[in-house]
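4.2 Preliminary Data

To establish feasibility before requesting continued support, the project team ran the inverse folding procedure on a target of 157 residues. The structure was first converted into the token representation described in Section 3, and no sequence information of any kind was made available to the design step. The complete token record follows.
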């Protein structure tokens, strides 16, 4: 379907009593949806590969920052999970050529910078609110994170 056909379809939906049209092809799909009393809106969706994190059986190795499969034999009930305070991109380093802020086994105290989360071109330093030892890093460097997503597991003892 070319752009002229798409424009004609939008005009048709706008002028008709139809409220929604979906169109699907091999590489893409789109939906044209009209709210009652409004003009037609065009919504396009492309299939995307989104990384998914499964916190029950993966962690980040301390040296390379790459994902390694591990079975957790640790009693997580004694640990505290540090979660993301915002949506954005998670960075373990202050710059690409710098070392990680923290690694597994590092002792942290209140106010220690753990990572940076970029949101809307602003880089926000995430500081620890507790003291303890980093047990696990749960997110890979440069990966998107959601609000309240687990980032680190800390042993407070």
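Position-by-position output of the design step:
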């Amino acid at each position: 379907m070319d752009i002229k056909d798409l424009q004609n379809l939008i005009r048709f939906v706008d002028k008709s009593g139809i409220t929604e049209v979906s169109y699907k092809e091999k590489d893409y799909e789109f939906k044209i949806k009209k709210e009652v009393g409004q003009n037609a809106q065009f919504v396009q969706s492309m299939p995307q590969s989104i990384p998914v994190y499964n916190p029950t059986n993966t962690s980040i190795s301390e040296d390379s920052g790459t994902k390694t499969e591990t079975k957790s034999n640790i009693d997580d009930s004694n640990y505290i999970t540090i979660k993301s305070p915002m949506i954005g991109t998670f960075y373990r380093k202050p710059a690409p050529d710098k070392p990680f802020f923290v690694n597994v086994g590092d002792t942290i105290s209140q106010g220690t910078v753990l990572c940076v989360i970029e949101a809307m071109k602003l880089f926000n330093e995430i500081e620890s609110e507790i003291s303890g030892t980093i047990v696990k890093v749960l997110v890979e460097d440069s990966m998107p994170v959601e609000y309240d997503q687990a980032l680190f597991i800390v042993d407070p003892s």
